[in-house]
Amino acid sequence: MSTPFEIPEEVSRITKTLKNAGFESYLVGGCVRDLFLGKTPKDWDVTTNAGPEEIIKLFPKTFYENDYGTVGVVNEDTENDSLKVIEVTPYRKEGKYTDNRRPDTVSFDATLDEDLNRRDFTINAIALDVEDNKVIDPFSGRKDIQEGVIKTVGKPEDRFEEDSLRILRSVRIHAELGFIIDPSTEKAIVYDAHLLKNIAKERIRDEFIRIIMSSSPMEGMLTMRKFGLIEHTIPHLAKTFDVKQNQAHSYDVWTHLLKSLQHAADKKLALHIRLSALFHDIAKPDTRRLSKDKQEWTFYGHEVVGERVTRETLKDLRFPNDIIEKVSKLVRWHMFFSDTEQITLSAVRRLISNVGQENVWDLIDVRMCDRIGTGRPKESPYRLRKYKSMIEEVMRDPVSVGMLKIDGKKIMEVTDLPAGPKVGYILHALLEEALENPSINTQAKLAKKAKELAILEESELKVLGEKGKKKKENEEEIKIKQIRKKHWVE
Ligand code: ATP
Ligand code: MG
């Protein structure tokens, strides 16, 4: 009897092929855990007693995934990204670990039990035989899935000392699935937290990304703090713990940052916005001073220092350059003016040129997270909506002769007119026509029209040109009205 779970054809084709060739083959790890949870797996892992060379021979297109014998089997004719490559890994057992990250030796003459034994958590150490509906669950992972518990396979200290990344994986699974961490596993995490310093930054980064991209990043970060992991992963952030702010803030800096991050997650915003929400006040502890009258804390320049600290932090975690640039820019400019009474279009223009056109709407998102993270009830009050409206006004395509598919030089060429006011009048007269009837905005049609206009007297042309200018102003006004209406700031 085959398994009652819905297994994509691209996956069962692989387990079947291995079996037909006389090998054992099982789904294993996160995908089995997710099936028992009723969730669609993010990726599918197959384990087998076939060796790497034997696996490769059975499938038309494969490649080596890593140094551990994992073969990527390519499914070329699938639309679904999670099925394009299925990882098939031979059963393996691992030798001693001496560096807290990698086994000194790996051997492939292992049994399924030995393979499950090397896996991190009981919930990730279940194998499922799809064709025979057989579940191999030596560590009662199914019970832990049911109870929502993260527990290491074997003695937690040993497992974290072998590969300390598992510490962060447990927090990631906690944030993603809401499972609790078993007390003895937790105790070992706290004890071994410092070993994270031996782990490659890229691996830390990937788990950190998963934590902040989960639906509960605040809970994930609070757990990291509780376990003493922040100091060993994002040390600068640890400085924000319990840093009191002035009276406008009900939360300390750390809590404010987490609440901002959580709002970004609630709104399903992208990674770079979540990072900006988390880091925007990271340098407040470095810039905190008592005000002159000693009544209040001040944080002048925290956004300038914050840009530098953010850059260093993301670089240290080996984030790609485009993310580093975007996030540090957003942190640098997050304090943009928000008092509408005094903001002017030219101030808005300056901001856009500072943060970049491509980032300005992200900056607004960061501001909204910042507001909610401060405990304000509204993410976008009148002032911010007004600001958005002004940004859109500044960024819109202006209604101008520049929109025409012809310019003054071309007009002079086709009409033989010399440079002078007549050319300007013609351009405006053409603009009026094009606004009325956009289909004439081609070079050929405009050139023809320009020739007809060129024979008119300068005084007649002037009247037409003025009409064009008036029309242009009306159109501008309509456009701006529409923008304001959209942002509810009429
Ligand atoms: P997801 O697919 O949702 O990211 P996952 O648990 O499948 O979660 P993967 O990184 O895909 O995570 O790993 C697949 C499986 O490999 C895990 O379920 C676990 O059995 C095993 N595994 C991964 N990393 C480790 C590790 N550092 N130590 C021990 N076993 C691991
Ligand atoms: Mg997986």
Describe the structure.
The chain contains 25 helices and 13 strands. The chain has 490 residues and is an alpha+beta fold. A seven-stranded mixed β-sheet has the order 3-4-5-2-1-8-9. The longest helix is centred in the C-terminal third of the chain and has 29 residues. The structure holds adenosine-5'-triphosphate and magnesium ion. Magnesium ion binds next to helix 2.
Would you state the CATH class of the largest domain? Mainly Alpha
Q: Mean pLDDT score, rounded?
A: 93
Low-confidence stretches: none
Content-based structural category: alpha+beta
Strand order of the largest sheet: 3-4-5-2-1-8-9
Rounded to the nearest angstrom, the distance between the terminal CA atoms is 67 Å
Percent strand = 5-15%
Helix content: 40-55%
Quick description:
The chain is an alpha+beta fold and 490 residues long. The protein is built from 25 helices and 13 strands.
